[in-house]
Amino acid sequence: MGSTDLDNDKTEEKGITLKKSSDSEESSSEAMDDSTHMERSDYLENGSPIYHETKPEQESEERKQKERDLRKKLNRVARETVSDSIHSKVKLIVHRPDYDQENQQEYNSLYAGLKSIVGEIARKTMPLLEHEVSSEFAGNRYYGSKFQANSVAYRDYRYFARKRPPTESPSLVVGLRVDESASMSAFGRLEAAKRAVIAVYEFCQMCRIPIMIYGDTADVSKLEQMSIFAYADLDHTDSNDRFRLMGIRPRSNNRDGMVLRIMAERLAASSQQTKLLISISDGQPKAMDVYSGDYAAADMQQTIEEYERKGVRFFAAAIGQDKDIISEIYGHDKYLDISNLQTLPEQLVRMISRFL
């Protein structure tokens, strides 16, 4: 699996049995010592990130331990999330991908072609955040001075709105899911997905929007029926996460409903008012043994409906041959038909900006 991290421990929890993989988390995390890392401090006016060097000897044991703790936490939370679902018996590993100097160079090369577009949209968006007025109402509250009848349909008791103080900015959190099935290698889909992920990541950094970016695949082995790659996470912000994104690659099958449930649960638990979960996928769900067709579609629709009631908004960016099926699963109002892959980065960034 390249430079991805695996969970070393034999774990038996919630009916899920894990065994050590040859590509262990320890071996990949140690590889970080061999390269010079870069830390982001700010952005230039043209949207380019400013870096300062962190030498390998400055990589502390404390930092490595935090990464190990994060991996264990992500695995535990993910397994707990699906323990009461149809995925409870699926053998799952959440990886925390590593990165190297080649990943840094690839990222900088791809971002060079995107920074003008991303920077322009961010410059138009940030004044709206800086000049938020107190007369606006923040909705989806348990109490407040204004009753919102249209919120009753969600049945979450958040039926009121209250005036937002001048110091309280619009609140948004973004989850971006990337399908890493084998078919992503066709027709430039992987390159388009990487460019889109970079654009969304940098836009969110500029606008200080919390973001989690997960990739996923299924059936890489009998011991790893579901693989999730935590490139960027809400609980652990690291400016080097941008380089981890270069680990996105085509792998095997896709068990969409499982990763959507795991990510949606994290977003639903966040404190932000608006929660977006965007899926970039080129095909319908299909994984062993029977996760396909109507069965998989029903699982995804049930997951979407369940977490929409908890305030998560879903969108699907369809970039492959199964666009009609993806549209039916997510709903026509949550579906983006990306016919021109070159426009995918800009379309996603502009869509996110509309929620600020």
Automatic annotation (TrEMBL):
Pfam family, one: CobT_C
Compositionally biased tracts (Acidic residues): 24-33
Region Disordered, annotated ranges: 1-71
PROSITE patterns from the UniProt entry: VWFA
UniProt biased composition (Basic and acidic residues): 7-23, 34-43, 52-71
SUPFAM superfamilies tied to this protein: vWA-like
Residue ranges of domain VWFA in the record: 173-352
InterPro entries the UniProt entry points to: CobT_VWA_dom, NorD/CobT, VWF_A, vWFA_dom_sf
Name by which UniProt lists this protein: Nitric oxide reductase activation protein NorD
Organism: Paenibacillus vulneris
Source lineage: Bacteria, Bacillati, Bacillota, Bacilli, Bacillales
